[in-house]
Amino acid sequence: MSIRTQTANMKALAELLSQDLGYIFGERESGPNGAKCLFHTKARAFLTGLRKDLGIVGWKIRTNKAGIAVSGEVTLRGLWEIGNGLRVELTQDLAYGNVMFVGPIIGLDDYASGYAVSFTLETLRKADYASLILDLLAFKEDFQDGWTAA
Prior knowledge:
By secondary structure, the chain is an alpha+beta fold.
């Protein structure tokens, strides 16, 4: 995807994640035009472009809409090579303001690695896609050298 498209996706995600996506009154969030549904659509598109730009060769993107009082999450699990990959999860954490979590994985079915680094809403608001790519590519070397989440 182009940097322009991904920058627009970052801005749209920042706007959506600054709302309470678990809000259950008024317009139905599970409906086709709800903010929660739009978040999942934009997040999936963003992660699809991100995996291409990171040079990830093996990947899965999973969407979990969860219940009515939460945002759910959209997760990319991607491998640069066997034993070296990352998980990028977009979700709404109202308690701490974190919206993106990145952690190492060794396989596409690795669910035990835990979170390594969290990014706040400010990361998406900046809409600096090129810097985000560079930051995430730095994890490739860290993870390859045996760095694990605390």
